[in-house]
Design a protein that fits this description.
Length: about 120
């Protein structure tokens, strides 16, 4: 039972074994959220109640986990700036519009640097 081979039709995801599983690239905190979501039968309302936060907060946290998992499945790492901004939003230290503007400015700088090279 050590060898796992999963093939998902649409995304054509293939996993050779447990050590290659994209879920294992998630933090312990993210894995706990995913586990609790499964235990709550996929209910975001139930998950929000367990974590003692609002539905929009748990939706935002789950969206971040989904993004991280998608990147892991593509063999990519999360952008540290966007991770930091998302954390500030989640903790209530920054609003979404400000974070989007910062990310946009950072993207402009990167694109400008590529154009100068």
């Amino acid at each position: 039972m050590n060898n796992i081979h999963v093939s998902i039709n649409e995304s054509k995801t293939r996993l050779a074994g447990r050590h290659d599983h994209p879920l294992l690239s998630l933090s312990d905190e993210d894995l706990a959220l995913v586990s609790e979501l499964v235990l709550q039968s996929g209910s975001l309302k139930g998950l929000a109640e367990v974590y003692g936060v609002s539905y929009p907060t748990i939706r935002a946290r789950l969206d971040r986990v989904i993004d991280r998992l998608q990147l892991a499945m593509q063999g990519r790492r999360p952008d540290p700036l966007r991770e930091f901004l998302a954390d500030l939003i989640e903790r209530g230290h920054m609003n979404v519009d400000t974070a989007r503007r910062i990310a946009s400015l950072a993207d402009e700088r990167v694109n400008q640097a590529k154009g100068d090279a």
